């Protein structure tokens, strides 16, 4: 029997591990979060981009071996699988949206206007060990600004303004956009005599402070892997403790660091500039802070780095992160394409917010259920439904007559807030009855046709 031949026995329906599959009312909440992110990105002038779910393996795997390759899902046709051809499959599923962006910009470089501003909201795939809050398939919502040859550091401040707008509109509680600068970090490392590739290793270790704690990180830094002196490790950890509590405090904390190497001073000047621009952009100072422990473990970051946390739920960790990089597409083009951007892992964020009780299944995306008590009322129910839709309402029509109590139960289970009824007595008196399921209240309004649908809409808006 072929490995592709299906079994004849009944298969138990179950969701593949590492995926997020929601019930309808939960999906409505998730979709609204997606809509908030998309609308906010667009409001800042970012343009939509979608790339194929799979890329050529040689394009996706620009670095052979390592953690990335161990997490990639390869794509094979049934024919190729049966042939069992040697070598890696031709195609692989994208594991983030950054590599596809790099390929896209390099491929279409001469057709794009720079700076190229794009948002991309699509699923990505990683072969991680499935566990709570960690998914193999999940939505990423990215924005990036890509320059040709150069990109002003002024864009470094625009990104936090976008983050602020997204989470303010999402209404999930107060948050803080924390940032640091790789040049500041590397310049400080230089003053400690930490040079070359060792800087990358120390950066990755410092980035683990929140997860491992100071004692564990200190032990690693002074152990065989790094062999730093206790004094050097202590200075690194003291530097990483620097936090700001206000706009002026952030500037004061930067001044208190004193003079350093040229790289250090360049990073500090860039942070000062970003702080001033955030003020002009109207981002509340309670929502941004200096945090010199943020390193972002990825090697390609070269400038400012961001992490956003919920004030009331620090255990959730970063809900949005990113930073500046000097050369996005060096594996695909000789052109220099610097950029800055951030990513929201929306599937994981939704799951965490749901677990923390911050979001829950809400009302349906349907505003009104038009009831049908008698088959003779169908024509009128269809007309009423169309009239309400013409006013911008999302309307479901009951197409089979059944007991009214059953229709109320159906609407309540779906989270539909209102049921509109127009039976025989209502038609005779040119009326419509509206029932608000949450309160149980009913109201009778005049209704003689499409012209009165606006009055129904006005009533529903008044109740909302």
Short description:
With 464 residues, the protein is an alpha+beta fold. It has helices at residues 24-43, 57-60, 66-70, 78-83, 98-107, 155-170, 182-191, 197-206, 209-212, 214-222, 230-240, 247-256, 262-280, 346-355, 378-389, 404-414, 424-428, 453-463, and strands spanning 47-48, 54-56, 74-75, 91-93, 116-125, 137-146, 175-181, 288-290, 301-310, 320-325, 339-345, 368-370, 395-397, 418-421, 431-436, 442-446.
What descriptive keywords fit this protein?
BirA Bifunctional Protein, domain 2; Rossmann fold; alpha+beta; eight-stranded mixed sheet
Strand order of the largest sheet: 1-5-6-11-10-9-7-8
Count of DSSP-assigned helices: 18
What's the helical proportion of residues? Answer: 25-40%
User: Given the C-alpha coordinates, what overall shape results?
Assistant: elongated
Poorly predicted parts: none
How would you describe what is shown here?
- The protein has helices spanning 24-43, 57-60, 66-70, 78-83, 98-107, 155-170, 182-191, 197-206, 209-212, 214-222, 230-240, 247-256, 262-280, 346-355, 378-389, 404-414, 424-428, 453-463; strands spanning 47-48, 54-56, 74-75, 91-93, 116-125, 137-146, 175-181, 288-290, 301-310, 320-325, 339-345, 368-370, 395-397, 418-421, 431-436, 442-446.
- The longest helix is centred in the first third of the chain and has 20 residues, at 24-43.
- The protein is elongated and about 90 Å long.
- It has three domains: 18-53 and 94-173 and 312-360, 2-Layer Sandwich (BirA Bifunctional Protein, domain 2); 177-299, Bira Bifunctional Protein, Domain 2 (BirA Bifunctional Protein, domain 2), CATH 3.30.930.10; 368-463, 3-Layer(aba) Sandwich (Rossmann fold).
- The protein is α+β, with helices and mostly antiparallel strands.
- The strands form three sheets. Strands 1-5-6-11-10-9-7-8 form an eight-stranded mixed β-sheet. The protein has a five-stranded mixed β-sheet with strand order 13-12-14-15-16, sandwiched between helices.
- The model has no long low-confidence stretch (mean pLDDT 90).
């Amino acid at each position: 029997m072929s490995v592709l031949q299906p079994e004849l026995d009944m298969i138990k329906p179950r969701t593949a591990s590492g995926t997020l599959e929601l019930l309808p009312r939960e999906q409505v909440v998730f979709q609204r979060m997606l809509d908030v992110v998309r609308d906010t990105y667009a409001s800042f002038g970012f343009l939509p981009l979608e790339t194929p779910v799979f890329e050529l393996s040689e394009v996706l795997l620009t670095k052979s071996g390592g953690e990335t390759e161990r997490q990639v899902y390869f794509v094979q046709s049934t024919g190729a699988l049966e042939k069992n051809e040697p070598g890696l499959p031709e195609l692989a599923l994208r594991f983030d949206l950054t590599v596809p962006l790099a390929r896209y910009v390099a491929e279409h470089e001469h057709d794009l206007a720079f700076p190229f501003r794009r948002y991309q909201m699509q699923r990505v795939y990683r072969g991680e060990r499935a566990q709570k809050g960690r998914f193999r398939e999940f939505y990423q919502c990215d924005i990036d600004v890509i320059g040709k040859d150069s990109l002003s550091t002024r864009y470094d401040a625009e990104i936090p303004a976008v983050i602020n707008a997204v989470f303010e509109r999402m209404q999930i509680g107060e948050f803080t956009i924390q940032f640091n600068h790789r040049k500041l970090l590397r310049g400080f490392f230089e003053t400690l005599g930490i040079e070359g590739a060792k800087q990358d290793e120390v950066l990755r270790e410092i980035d683990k402070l929140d997860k491992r704690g100071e004692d564990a990180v200190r032990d690693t830094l002074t152990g065989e892997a790094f062999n730093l002196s206790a004094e050097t490790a202590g200075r690194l950890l003291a530097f990483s403790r620097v936090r700001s509590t206000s706009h002026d405090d952030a500037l004061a904390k930067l001044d208190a660091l004193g003079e350093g190497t040229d790289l250090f001073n360049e990073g500090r000047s860039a942070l000062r500039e970003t702080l001033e621009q955030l003020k002009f952009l109207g981002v509340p100072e309670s929502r941004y802070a200096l945090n010199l422990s943020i390193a972002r473990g990825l090697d390609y970051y070269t400038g400012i780095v961001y992490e956003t946390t919920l004030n009331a739920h620090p255990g959730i960790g970063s809900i949005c992160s990113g930073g500046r990089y000097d050369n996005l597409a060096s594996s695909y083009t000789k052109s220099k394409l610097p950029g800055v951007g951030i990513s929201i892992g929306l599937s994981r964020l939704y799951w965490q917010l749901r677990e923390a009780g911050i979001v829950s299944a809400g009302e349906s995306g349907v505003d009104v259920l038009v009831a049908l008590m008698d088959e003779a009322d169908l024509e009128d129910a269809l007309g009423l439904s169309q009239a309400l839709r013409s006013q911008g309402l999302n309307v479901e029509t009951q197409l089979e007559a059944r007991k009214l109590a059953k229709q109320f139960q159906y609407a309540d289970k779906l989270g539909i807030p209102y049921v509109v009824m127009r039976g025989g007595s209502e038609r005779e008196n040119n009326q419509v009855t509206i029932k608000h399921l949450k309160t149980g209240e009913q109201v009778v309004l005049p209704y003689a046709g499409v012209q009165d649908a606006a009055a129904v809409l006005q009533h529903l808006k008044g109740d909302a």
